[in-house]
Specification:
The protein is α+β, with helices and mostly antiparallel strands. It has helices spanning about 55-80, 115-130, 130-135; strands at about 20-25, 30, 40, 85-95, 100-110, 140-145. It contains three helices and six strands, in the order βββαββααβ. The strands form two sheets. Strands 1-2-3 form a three-stranded antiparallel beta sheet, with no helix packed on it. It has a three-stranded mixed beta sheet with strand order 4-5-6, covered by helices on one side.
């Protein structure tokens, strides 16, 4: 690949579509079309809200961590490694950006307790290429991955 060239990570075939609806923005509730999600959302205390509900950043953290962990398990299994006891935790930060809007930053903490550090790092790099959330955020959101 030539320097500066980007890889097209768009899907070539849509295999599943998730549907959710927000009612009332950050101080309302969200539902999924299949009824699996019905959650109160609230502005966090740190952003001036009452914190009496989940928020979009927590939902994004939950989605990214579970998606990245699945990608990690996939690449680990393909390479023949045991990922017993592995975990992925995500922190999603929000704050103002330079364009008078808001931006996100993500920190993923990956634990692979049964693998040596070199193998674990290779699997994390491979998972970061496979994970749809990583592909969606690449060059758009700062994503830090800490292996520990």
């Amino acid at each position: 690949m030539t320097e500066g060239a980007t890889v097209d990570s768009r899907p070539t075939k849509i295999m599943y579509v998730a549907e959710a609806t927000a009612h009332g923005g950050r101080d309302g509730y969200v539902t999924s079309q299949d009824g699996q999600i019905e959650l109160k959302v609230a502005m966090p205390l740190e952003l001036g809200g009452d914190g009496n509900g989940t928020n979009p950043e927590q939902l994004f953290a939950a989605g990214y961590s579970s998606c990245f962990h699945n990608a990690l398990i996939l690449v680990g299994n393909r390479a023949g490694y045991d990922l017993t006891g592995s975990t992925v935790a995500a922190k999603v930060g929000i704050g103002p950006n330079k364009r008078r809007g808001y931006g996100l930053a993500v920190a993923l903490s990956v634990s692979l307790p049964v693998l040596d550090a070199d193998i674990a790092a290779k699997l994390v790099d491979a998972a970061h290429e496979v994970c749809p959330y990583s592909n969606a955020t690449r060059d758009n959101i700062d994503v830090t991955i800490v292996l520990g």
